[in-house]
Amino acid sequence: MKNEVVPVQIRGILPANSGCALFVGNEEKVFVINVEPQMGAVIGMFLRNEPKERPLTHDLMQRIFQGFNITVERVIITDLKNSTYFARLILQQQNEVARKIVEIDARPSDCLAIAAAQKKPIFVATPLFEQVEDMSEVLNRINETGSDASE
Question: Could you give the CA distance from residue 63 to residue 67 in angstroms, rounded to a whole number?
Fold first, then answer.
């Protein structure tokens, strides 16, 4: 992507009425991406390095990437349209002949799960980061009350 980006992390996960709220951000600002309850649970498992009885879809993807010598470079949350976030998964494939970078359109929840599983960096496009509502105080209050909103 040509746009400037801001590095962020998953700062907290909290069950919500319609699914799961992922608090994503940095020291400057935190915003919320709502995801399906199951996806929130999966991302939490990856963040906590919990063992799984069977490989999950994102584990399978990682094994396929390894088989084709593909590495996840980073994920970028790029845009927000009609209350829906958009993201890109940045992959690199390298062999003895060439190096290829591929950007794939993907759901932010999948990108965040892959980043959490593989400990890869997460970025937000600067214009988007400037646009989103800061939810830092909400996350701080949740953490102070002892709810399970942390990694």
Answer: 6
Matching residue, tokens 């400990």: 119
pLDDT range class, residue 151, cuts 50, 70, 90: very low
Which residue type is seen at 12? Answer: G
Tokens, residue 66? 């390894």
CA-CA distance, 102 to 133, in Å (whole number)? 30
The predicted model scores a pTM of 0.87
pLDDT digits (tens, 9 = 90+) for 109-139: 999 999 999 999 999 999 999 999 999 998 8
Domains and CATH numbers, the chain: 5-145 (3.10.690.10)
Strand partners, 15: 20
